[in-house]
């Protein structure tokens, strides 16, 4: 081979080698551009023209923004999950959704742990030391096929065990025995449904009296003393020794209120969890006993980690039960959280509509992995109300701006 031929061959080889290297290096970039589509992490998203937007209702649907509609009745399940950092617009979004659901005729219960979820059309009931209403954990369902004191006793045991850990087997046995004795003292018997409608039913204050009576009878009863001490916080605040907060979903055949805002912001965290868990389980139980029906009611919870038990993946946890079974009984769920890891898998998997708002930079990677998003898509959410939305029947994430008051520059 001549010198010129060798040089030509070498030139072709080097050209092909450079082309191959270029293709290898640029293919991931091109794929990334295709995935990111219109998202430009270096360019802040445009602010909406209007200073304040409101969610619009059209033919039973709610326009969330940017021409994206959410249908409370049109999707395979009615549940909505909102994920976003502090100040991203989660609370604002929940309030707007509640107002629109009420306007559409749905019944709504809002669980408020921070005192900022009051909405027009929902009666506010604040739970505190001096409040009129509380939560009666011992109130029984009147349904003859699944109500009565025995099922309620099992619920109370589970709730108190989760709220006041650790609680050993002996303490649980004593607690169960006390609850049986209290129902008997009030003349409430499982075998006689007529007694379930007693004009006065026992409450947690009666459990305290029962424990104190046992301590007086046997001052050396360490189990009774230990259980009394463990439950002292619930006894001292007395919210579990007051009339039951009115139920907007029509428990036990009562006329349902249109909306109820339960303000738990004045309670310590343990009692916030216990009150919310009790009400959630009561609501779900009443809907379950009412049977299969179309969606007519919603539970809305901001910062749902505050009513999530330590065993977040337990199928018996209230939020997981509503997420997996609520649709059948006409009950929808809208929850928000700052960190997706706070919620159980059942809730995440069974939520048809997912909204991701601005996330703290320390959580961007974890959130992106969980929802199979590009990190640049999350980084583009720079203003309150900026969001990505996904409906479970699509792989597409849409960009939108939920109605939110925008501060002047």
Written account of the structure:
With 409 residues, the protein is an alpha/beta fold. It has 3 domains: 1-36; 42-128 and 259-401, P-loop containing nucleotide triphosphate hydrolases (Rossmann fold), CATH 3.40.50.300; 149-234, no CATH class. 38% of the residues lie in helices and 15% in strands. It contains 12 helices and 12 strands. Strands 6-7-5-8-9-4-10-11-12 form a 9-stranded mixed β-sheet, sandwiched between helices. Strands 1-2-3 form a 3-stranded antiparallel β-sheet, with no helix packed on it. Helix 8 runs parallel beside helix 9. The radius of gyration is 27 Å and the shape is elongated. The model is unreliable at 28-53 and 405-409 (pLDDT under 50).
Short précis:
The protein is α/β, with parallel strands linked by helices.
**Uncertain stretches of 5 or more adjacent residues:** 28-53, 405-409
Distance between the termini: 73 Å
Radius of gyration over all CA atoms, rounded: 27 Å
Strand order of the largest sheet: 6-7-5-8-9-4-10-11-12
Helix content: 25-40%
Structural class: alpha/beta
Number of domains: 3
Oligomer: single chain
Let me know the largest β-sheet.
Answer: 9 strands, mixed
Architecture of the largest domain in CATH? Answer: 3-Layer(aba) Sandwich
Mean pLDDT: 84
Shape: elongated
SSE string, helices as H and strands as E: HEEEEHEEHHHHHEHEHEHEHHEE
CATH class of the largest domain: Alpha Beta
Please indicate the percent range of residues in DSSP E strands (runs of 2 or more).
15-25%
Number of strands: 12
- The CATH superfamily name of the largest domain is P-loop containing nucleotide triphosphate hydrolases
CATH topology of the largest domain: Rossmann fold
Number of helices: 12
